């Protein structure tokens, strides 16, 4: 049947105030979903940016490893075992350690994540690290993450003013600090577990943390010769190495970290729950609109049925209204979310970014939400019985 | 049943309620309505008039007896069939039942949505019909801006615009003052005559009985007498 009279639209548009309130409600839910998804993605994105930037094809970690922020060492000899393998080009250790960084301005000590690399091998696929590799060959020189949270003080400003930036680093439970100079900057950014990052020569880590030995490393970076099958090599290394270590491809490693945050920490659950709650609120808002539209016009709908309109025609009207509400509520929601993403990423330094996936995910959930309400409200429509109006 | 017969009812019975509570609301109804006839049905409330209207209108399933409307047998007809039959009948109700978010013209045009008229033609027809019910100057008004009599006239335009062969009206003047009630009924009669359309009207309004070709009286589910005026 051709729709010459757009009943769905005319009915919504006739009650302007109610229509606008409904759209505001849906826009609000859309914003809620965008923010939750934005932060959720920022959580995973920021938690895995080290993994994404690490050089290498395979990564060896302790089998006790749970996440980057709960580091767990394993014997360095495992790495040398790997070096003997055909197809392995090079290996390099990574030492990681939380420490405390004393704010040079107010003396407050904040936890900072220290990544100790071998200066012979630029462990990170970050141009600033590669360029500053020589800096790390000096003792007591470190690279500071300029995207770190502001709690660490005016390190970046001082560095840009060519002032020598001397800072103190403390072992996590120690009171005696270790003096280092910031010799360069790089960009990695904080995550939900880390406020800031330092890249140092691993010798520096061993000096700050007296209880650490070079034989215990945290992450082993394995670079394969070009053309080597990564999956097959992973299987072979897993086979040959003892059970105290795991061999991951980059994808495995990233997923492992994501799983930790989504399954092991409450935060992943909280985000999923909030998205679901937003959905439920949206269903209720839209249901109110659709239901009252139907129940206020029950006589008229029954009249249409008497005139020979089928139930399907009226169902179509309800679902068209659902779709109209979804799409028209989505647009202002999206525009406001863009603005809020900017505010959120500036405030948290986290990568809260709009992406095509999110655009689509929220559009689909908004539509689903409105259709769900449609399904709940059509029960009332069936009660419009034309035999009752005589 | 000849060509001129629009409605042909034979030995029609109807019951409400199930098993022990079952009560008969229509008993042995026999009625014939010819093309262009205006029939008024009166009788006390609860006598089964509305039930008979809903049966003829295809709004209820026939339980016993034969009921033919426009040549279709409604006894044992599928829901799909009933919907088809309804599209050839004009309905006018006690209250106007107009969609308040549509203008007068759009309300009338709704009846043409079912008949696959091209939009342009449907629009013209709807407007002509509104002129015919003397609302040519209210075409783009919403029902809330019309008086009770005007709204009922829009409802009449809606019922007649697709030129049905049968109009069923249930107390169309009940909500109107005597002057507008008279206007509405005169209009119905005049248009029905022009279109050759039969009207079966239920009413308690004694002032309008004169428009009928025939008056029938129902009591306790029986068609008691037939009065030829």
Automatic annotation (TrEMBL), chain A:
Domain of life: Bacteria
Compartments where located: Cell membrane
Domain MacB-like periplasmic core per the UniProt entry, residue ranges: 21-239
Membrane topology: Multi-pass membrane protein
Transmembrane segments: 20-39, 267-292, 313-339, 359-378
Main location: membrane
PANTHER family: ABC TRANSPORTER, MEMBRANE PROTEIN (PTHR43738), HEMIN TRANSPORT SYSTEM PERMEASE PROTEIN HRTB-RELATED (PTHR43738:SF1)
Start and end residues of each ABC3 transporter permease C-terminal domain: 273-386
Name of the protein in its database record: FtsX-like permease family protein
Alphabetical list of Pfam families matching this protein: FtsX, MacB_PCD
Sorted UniProt keywords: Cell membrane, Membrane, Transmembrane, Transmembrane helix, Transport
TrEMBL record, chain B:
Domain of life: Bacteria
InterPro entries: AAA+_ATPase (IPR003593), ABC_heterocyst_DevA (IPR014324), ABC_transporter-like_ATP-bd (IPR003439), ABC_transporter-like_CS (IPR017871), MacB-like_ATP-bd (IPR017911), P-loop_NTPase (IPR027417)
Record flagged with keyword DNA-binding: no
CDD domains: ABC_MJ0796_LolCDE_FtsE
SUPFAM superfamilies, per the entry: P-loop containing nucleoside triphosphate hydrolases (SSF52540)
Keyword Metal-binding in record: no
Every ABC transporter domain range: 7-229
Key words, A-Z: ATP-binding, Nucleotide-binding, Transport
GO MF, one example: ATP binding
SMART domains for this protein: AAA (SM00382)
NCBIfam families: heterocyst_DevA
Family, as annotated: Belongs to the ABC transporter superfamily.
Protein name per the record: DevA family ABC transporter ATP-binding protein
Organism annotation: Gloeocapsopsis crepidinum LEGE 06123
């Amino acid at each position: 049947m051709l729709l010459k009279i757009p009943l769905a639209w005319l009915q919504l548009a006739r009650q302007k105030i109610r229509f606008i309130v409904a759209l505001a409600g849906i826009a609000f839910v859309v914003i809620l979903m965008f923010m939750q998804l934005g932060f959720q993605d920022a959580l995973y994105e920021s938690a895995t940016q080290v993994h994404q930037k690490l050089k290498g094809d395979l990564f060896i970690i302790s089998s006790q490893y749970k996440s980057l922020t709960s580091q767990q060492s394993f014997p360095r000899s495992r790495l040398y075992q790997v070096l003997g393998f055909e197809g392995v080009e090079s290996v390099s250790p990574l030492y990681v350690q939380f420490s405390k960084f004393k704010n040079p301005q107010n003396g407050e000590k904040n936890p900072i994540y220290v990544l100790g690399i071998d200066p012979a091998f630029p462990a990170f696929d970050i141009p600033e690290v590669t360029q500053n590799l020589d800096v790390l060959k000096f003792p007591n020189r470190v690279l500071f993450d300029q995207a770190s949270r502001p709690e660490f003080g005016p390190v970046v400003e001082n560095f840009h003013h060519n002032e020598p930036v001397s800072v103190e680093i403390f072992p996590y439970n120690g009171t005696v600090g270790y003096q280092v100079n910031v010799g360069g900057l790089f960009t990695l950014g904080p995550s939900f577990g880390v406020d800031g990052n330092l890249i140092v020569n691993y010798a520096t880590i061993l000096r700050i943390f007296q209880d650490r030995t070079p034989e215990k490393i945290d992450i082993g970076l394995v670079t394969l010769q070009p053309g080597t099958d990564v999956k097959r090599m992973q299987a072979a290394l897993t086979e040959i190495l003892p059970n105290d270590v795991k061999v991951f491809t980059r994808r495995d490693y990233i997923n492992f970290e994501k799983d930790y945050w989504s399954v092991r920490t409450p935060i992943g659950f909280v985000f999923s729950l909030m998205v679901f709650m937003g959905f439920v609120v949206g269903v209720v808002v839209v249901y109110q609109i659709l239901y009252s539209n139907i129940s206020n016009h029950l006589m008229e709908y029954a009249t249409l049925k008497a005139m020979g309109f089928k139930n399907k025609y009226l169902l179509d009207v309800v679902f068209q209204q659902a779709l109209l509400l979804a799409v028209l509520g989505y647009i202002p929601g999206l525009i406001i979310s863009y603005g809020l993403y900017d505010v959120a990423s500036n405030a948290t330094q986290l990568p809260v970014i709009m992406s095509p996936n999110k655009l689509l995910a929220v559009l689909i959930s908004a539509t689903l939400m409105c259709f769900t309400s449609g399904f709940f409200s059509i029960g009332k429509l069936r009660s419009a019985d034309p035999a009752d109006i005589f | 049943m000849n060509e001129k017969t629009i409605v042909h009812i034979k030995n029609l019975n109807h019951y409400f309620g199930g098993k022990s509570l079952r009560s008969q609301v229509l008993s042995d109804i026999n009625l014939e309505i010819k093309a262009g006839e205006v029939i008024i049905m009166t009788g006390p409330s609860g006598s089964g008039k509305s039930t008979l209207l809903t049966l003829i209108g295809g709004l209820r399933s026939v339980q016993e007896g034969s009921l033919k409307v426009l040549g279709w047998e409604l006894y044992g007809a599928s829901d799909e069939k009933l919907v088809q039959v309804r599209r050839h009948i004009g309905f006018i109700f006690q209250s106007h039942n107009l969609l308040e978010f549509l203008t007068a013209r759009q309300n009338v045009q709704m009846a043409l949505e079912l008949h696959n008229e091209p939009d342009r033609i449907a629009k013209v027809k709807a407007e002509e019909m509104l002129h015919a019910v003397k609302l040519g100057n209210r075409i783009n008004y919403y029902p809330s801006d019309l008086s009770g009599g005007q709204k009922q006239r829009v409802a009449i335009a809606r019922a007649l615009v697709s030129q049905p062969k049968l109009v069923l009206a249930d107390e169309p003047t009940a909500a109107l003052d005597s002057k507008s009630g008279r206007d509405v009924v005169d209009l119905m009669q005049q248009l029905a005559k022009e279109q050759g359309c039969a009207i079966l009207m239920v009413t308690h309004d004694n002032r309008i009985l004169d428009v009928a070709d025939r008056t029938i009286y129902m009591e306790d589910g029986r068609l008691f007498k037939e009065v030829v005026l």
